[in-house]
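Q: Given only this backbone (499 positions), what sequence would you predict?
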């Protein structure tokens, strides 16, 4: 009976194929078939999608700053048997060389992280790299931020990265910070994430008095100097003291953290949305959260590199994952992609895998290497149709986004992958049944942007931007699709394994 049913199904397929016209068959052969990943996912895949999304949401909630993300990543690396390469650099001789399967990492000042699993092939023949950034737009504090005005105490702020100022008013904010006291001890501060914690906010003008404000351009609704954070209003119980509200708040910080006002000058304080990552939609198909750009790609890259090399499997080529800081302000500084951090790491690997190290080895390794710049792209938003080119926009549910080039206008300030490398990546994704799509950021001359790709490409590495489409990018509550997150993770594994 089963055989007859199968024959009937097969016969039905044959009749269906015969019924197609020559043009239809030709169209199937030549057109780019952009499927919806939800349609092609099996029951097992759907369960994996949900499990991966839950892990990501939990990781994101505990990693709202670059330091916190790196700290969590380090915990995973240590559990998987990775060793700090700094502890190996002073060892010499054959006994100190890294063998295939060795797992090493380098923590760059707690804000960036690079790790590798040594492959069977020599590092000089090239490595496979995933690179992402772990910083996100936010509100920082100025170096002398605390002041009192008409019974309020506020923090004077300086925003970080490209934001729409008005989006950061009237939402609950959490304070994440690191300071080094006079005693030299580090103090980590987090206020606003625990349900019992107080939160902070930036006020806005009531509509009854906002007639003049509402006549301004959106970019002028809230000036950068008006993004000051409401921190307190209770005075210290001594009427003879000046700035009693400021003193009361400082005393609370001193009692709990040992802070004095001058500690603000060198401390790092970041204010981020206090909400948690949540499922979006009745169908729970999406995730809304702060920091998807670029932590969704960073998480997918981190897990892909770890899962590919789990169970002591030795990759053919050495696998490297780069998680950098400062991308949102140009990748500057000693923890950004424009620094020497990646070059140094490659040099360390060459020095620890070859007895006959020379300066040409890391240069040769870089020129033979391939990388996916794991960064997000702008998802098509039907509410703002005019800025997108529908033919080249990226869409929710259509999988991992390949962006051949970035930049603005005439491709200024970006990176562009060559045809050979684009086809290589497209081919390996097709081979592994990983759904991918095109992805330009928007219409020409409507804007643009860049990633860390340009900085790594400058070292001679083959680089292609490749990531997840995002709605409401750079806002306090960005949105991604769960299926795109999981498809990207699978795509990163395929690249590391086969590129």
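A: Predicted residues:
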């Amino acid at each position: 009976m089963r055989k007859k049913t199968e024959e009937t199904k097969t016969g039905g397929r044959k009749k269906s194929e015969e019924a197609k016209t020559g043009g239809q068959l030709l169209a199937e052969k030549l057109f780019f078939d952009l499927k919806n990943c939800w349609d092609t996912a099996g029951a097992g895949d759907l369960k994996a999608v949900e499990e991966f999304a839950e892990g990501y949401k939990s990781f994101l909630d505990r990693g709202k700053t670059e330091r916190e993300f790196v700290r969590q990543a380090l915990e995973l690396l240590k559990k998987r048997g990775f060793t700090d390469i700094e502890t190996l650099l002073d060892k010499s001789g054959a006994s100190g060389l890294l063998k295939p399967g060795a797992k090493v990492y380098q923590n760059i000042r707690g804000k960036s992280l690079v790790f590798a699993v040594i492959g069977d092939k020599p590092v000089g023949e090239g490595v496979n790299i995933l690179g992402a950034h772990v910083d996100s737009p936010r509100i920082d504090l100025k170096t002398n931020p605390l002041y009192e005005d008409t019974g309020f105490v506020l923090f004077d702020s300086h925003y970080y990265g490209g934001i729409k100022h008005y989006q950061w008013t009237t939402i609950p904010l959490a304070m994440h910070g690191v300071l080094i006291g006079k005693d030299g001890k580090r103090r980590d501060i987090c206020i606003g994430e625990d349900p019992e914690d107080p939160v902070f906010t930036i006020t806005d003008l009531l509509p009854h008095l906002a007639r003049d404000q509402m006549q301004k351009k959106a970019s002028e609704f809230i000036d950068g100097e008006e993004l000051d954070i409401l921190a307190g209003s209770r005075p210290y119980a001594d009427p003879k003291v000046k700035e009693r509200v400021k003193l009361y708040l400082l005393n609370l910080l001193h009692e709990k953290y040992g802070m004095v006002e001058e500690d603000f000058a060198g401390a790092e304080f970041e204010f981020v949305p206090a909400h948690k990552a949540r499922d979006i939609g009745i169908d729970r198909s999406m995730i809304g959260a702060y920091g998807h750009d670029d932590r969704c790609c960073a998480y997918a890259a981190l897990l892909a590199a770890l899962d590919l090399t789990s169970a002591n499997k030795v990759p053919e080529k050495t696998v490297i994952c780069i998680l950098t800081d400062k991308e949102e302000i140009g990748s500057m500084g000693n923890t950004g992609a424009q620094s020497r951090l990646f070059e140094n790491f490659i040099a360390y690997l060459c020095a620890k895998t070859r007895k006959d190290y020379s300066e040409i080895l890391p240069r040769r390794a870089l020129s033979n290497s391939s990388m996916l710049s794991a960064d997000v792209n702008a998802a098509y938003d039907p509410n703002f149709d005019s800025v997108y080119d529908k033919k080249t926009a990226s869409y929710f549910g259509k999988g991992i986004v390949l962006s051949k080039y970035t930049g603005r206008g005439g491709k200024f300030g970006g990176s562009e992958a060559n045809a050979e490398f684009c086809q290589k990546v497209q081919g390996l994704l097709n081979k592994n049944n990983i759904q991918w799509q095109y992805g330009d950021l928007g219409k020409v001359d409507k804007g643009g942007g860049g990633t860390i790709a340009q900085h790594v490409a400058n070292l001679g590495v083959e680089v292609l931007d490749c990531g997840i489409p995002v709605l409401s990018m750079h806002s306090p509550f960005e949105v991604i699709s769960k299926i795109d997150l999981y498809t990207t993770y699978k795509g990163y594994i395929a690249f590391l394994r086969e590129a």
